[in-house]
């Protein structure tokens, strides 16, 4: 079957917090921009991604050099479970002052230019109590979906897979993706129908025909639930038994999607990525690079308000990886949708 677009429907309000249904609160609409006008949105997204990237790079350099402010910038707060929480609820999700400062910069800059646009940001959403486990409903208003610093744990440890991820939906459809790795100075950009580029050069997904030819990346996510740990290791074991060529784990969903879109990795899968901000930009980028986006078992991809599942790459390798993952799925692992 062909790749389906994510089920996304309604939204609004500047710096919106998701409510318990995964929606945002409507406000007075402004005239809709033509999709042909995406260049202005694209240029602004690139501008703010670079600005946030400078903040990340400076904090990274200060930390590495022991300069003033470096330790403060990577001081860790947890969005995960409290110490001593039940094992089934255990998680290790982190946030730093740099995450928050970058999100404020990105949203503030875009809002100044487009004051009636809507915003879904990782840190503001968690500050508002998190998001429900439901499909994300996006409305007519342009809605920016932002991860200001994807790969926070990497950032805390000084590891390079750290990205700024900015997606845009117009009329309920994802149409723009910008991902920037400031430590590698790599800017990946895509608009619907306009192709995908990495530092200005067109990119294309790899050509692996199946598991045996594939270099695959899997993030294990923040959950430390024992049952989830067991299932995650069973999936990896099944892929290895199927003669997977290679396996990587980067800790950044957005970096994974740059690498898949550029053909450096053949596929990325994850069960439990943090929220829509992790994948909104990458969805557009992978599609425009010739790839498909599915859930981890090969069913239709749904952009969710909370944690979600993804498997992306070229159509053939995605189908074969999904086949292997379904073989160890509890209850027989039927593809959804």
UniProtKB/TrEMBL annotation:
Q: Which InterPro entries does UniProt cross-reference here?
A: IMPase, Inositol_monoP_metal-BS, Inositol_monophosphatase-like, Inositol_monophosphatase_CS
Pfam families according to UniProt: Inositol_P (PF00459)
Entry cofactors: Mg(2+)
- Enzyme Commission no: 3.1.3.25
Task: Give the first-level EC class, as a single word.
Answer: hydrolase
Renumbered residue ranges of the record's region Disordered: 1-34, 60-89
Give the Basic and acidic residues compositional bias ranges: 16-29
Q: Which reaction does it catalyse?
A: a myo-inositol phosphate + H2O = myo-inositol + phosphate
Gene Ontology biological-process entries: inositol biosynthetic process; phosphatidylinositol phosphate biosynthetic process; signal transduction
Q: Which pathway does the record list?
A: Polyol metabolism; myo-inositol biosynthesis; myo-inositol from D-glucose 6-phosphate: step 2/2
> Taxonomically, which superkingdom?
Eukaryota
The record's annotation in CDD domains points to: IMPase
Any GO MF annotation of the entry: metal ion binding
**Any idea which positions bind Mg(2+)?**
122, 147, 149-150, 278
Which key words are in the record? Hydrolase, Magnesium, Metal-binding
Provide the family line: Belongs to the inositol monophosphatase superfamily.
Q: What name appears for this protein in its UniProt entry?
A: Inositol-1-monophosphatase
Origin species, per record, is Emiliania huxleyi
